[in-house]
Amino acid sequence: MTTLSLEQRLEILADSAKYDVSCSSGGSNRKGVPGGIGSTRPSGICHTWTADGRCISLLKILLTNSCIYDCAYCVNRSSNPIPRTALTPDEIVKLTMDFYCRNYIEGLFLSTGVVQSANHTMEQLIRVVRKLRVEERFNGYIHLKIVPGADAVLIEEAGRHADRVSINIELPSHRSLQLLAPDKPRESLIGPMRQLSSLIESARQEHKHSGKAPRFAPAGQSTQLIVGATPENDREIITLSEGLYQRLGMKRVYYSAFVPVSSDQRLPALPSPPLLREHRLYQADWLLRFYGFSSQELLDEAHPNLDMRFDPKTGWALRHLEHFPVEVNRADYQVLLRVPGIGVRSAQRIVQARRTSRLGEEELKRLGVVLKRARYFITAGDRYLGGIRLDGPQLLARLMAPNRRKASLDQLELFPAGTDVSAVTGEL
Amino acid sequence: MQQYRFDGSFEGFLCAMSRCLADGIETAEFLSDTAASESGLFQDLMVDVATDRDNAIGFRERFVAAASVEAFAMLRYAFHSEHHGIEQQLWNYVRLGLKTGPKLCSMMADKRVNDVDRLARSVAKEAHKYKGFVRFREVEQGFLYARIEPEADILCFLAPHFVQRIGDRHWMIHDLRRSLAAAYDLTTWRLLRDITLTGSPGYTDAEQECAGLWQCYFQRHAIEARHNPKLQQKHVPLRSRKHMVEFDHS
Description:
The structure holds two protein chains of two kinds.
Chain A: H1 6-17, E1 48-49, E2 55-56, E3 58-62, H2 89-101, E4 107-111, H3 118-135, E5 141-145, H4 152-161, E6 164-166, H5 174-180, H6 186-209, E7 221-227, H7 234-248, E8 252-257, H8 275-290, H9 295-298, H10 312-319, E9 326-327, H11 333-337, H12 344-353, H13 361-366, H14 371-374, E10 378-380, E11 383-384, H15 392-400, H16 419-425
Parallel strand pairs in A: 3-4, 4-5, 5-6, 6-7, 7-8, 9-10
Antiparallel strand pairs in A: 1-2, 10-11
Chain B: E1 2-6, H1 10-23, E2 28-32, E3 46-48, H2 53-66, H3 69-79, H4 86-100, H5 111-133, E4 137-138, E5 144-148, H6 155-165, E6 171-175, E7 180-184, E8 189-192, H7 205-221, H8 229-235
Helix pairs in contact in B: 1-2, 2-3, 3-4, 3-5, 4-5, 5-6
């Protein structure tokens, strides 16, 4: 294992780390210290995009890809015959500092396979971040994986150094976890997440009273769900996410279209990862967090899965035509947000602009409101812009009419967290 | 028409507008020193305005008091777009702002405000992107050196960000398109004009090694089953790849 060069080990560990989708570097606002290195921006900054269209913001790396667990969906499961290797804390610290000062990255995303025990593994991770923060006085972003089952004292130290912490649930139900990750009962994941949630919240409260109070993961916690490896429907997934946002104050739930990394019999053989489904789930997730929708509105027993033909907001609107059309000059902000084609930014601009002038079609266009979909659901100055009668089947046909721009599927935003959006929605 | 010539800087432009207001002139033309003079015939109507920091700050305070901080930020970002005719557009915007007051920013449906807002947003967006795209390389002279060729003149938005971030090293960001550079000397940053390279910069051994590691990390980090170069190109347009280490295949 020690015979491999740094470059070879970096390659192996990058390979092992890349299925973790979180790439966010936002939510933390720390100025640089004079003469020091590192700062964080609330919006986060993407530094580059790889050939799969995913952004790189953090150096995402494993301390080691050896693991005592054998979770069927995971590329690093103990039964998978891949080369195993590790980086030393010094090597990771040097890589991070070298990459950071050249502006390749916003910081470090450190994860690891579990070796020996939860406590031992957590200690190894903490050694790296402590070195970065204390010895190198690194002030940039750190996302740290928490090893479920680690001691409370260790978790507390981890959160003092990290901006964000995360534990991945990976599979959306008890049933699936039991089947594919028998070593990880669900309670062993949710318990530590609850603990993190209360530590984050109490540190936040204390910080409000005194600016000197120690921070604990100021950018909160996130988690990840694998989509398509197990039979859960979208309703189960979105309901779970809603619970995580509401009850655990989760900052983000990431969805990862299952990429077959093994031929395990318990896993489905997918021809390609369900990218469109992943995309629709992100859209629904955004509706939960920024548009005031609840999971029941988006999905119910009659519609347990998101419509792949259009986005979930359009789907909702088509089932509730009685709410439309709405008049853009009068409708509340919350109502505008529910119009297909009008996003957070457009709604804000409409509300702002109509204070000083009456909005017609021309004005809406000037504001940058994309009318392609919105026109069927609004009136502007009491004039309906849709041009057809607002009824179900006709509208459906219009909205599904093939896009003249070829290959629109290729243009799907797999990660809707565009940098320019983040400043407005506060996306983390 | 009365013409005001300034040195091409934002501060200079503020001074020129300030002078124009003092002269009580409504329709004026503003000429940047860097732009070729097209007005040989009317030299007598040309006023050269000296750039004076206090004067510029005075104008800023006046505009902020009349309109708002946001309205001034919009003015500043839009100016750096270097869009053709931007001085005229901004002069109209400023006059409108002084007349209408704090509601200026909310008049988004008004063409005069909307056009400025669009430009300002595109500059702000590019400045944000380049906070990620700048790639420093360690040169033999012992400092970090980065080259960029952005559409807008965004150095003054980038430099303060990197002062916060990389405070323990000397660095320079060089805008090749404009022959401008922002240089940091551990205490403060300065804008240098008319920078030309006399030779190609020599990189240190440590630099070559680090760039190599980054390239291999970058290659391996993509998931093959999700291959999507179009999406990649949407986020990192080809024109911005020229000076990014990970896209350098030489």
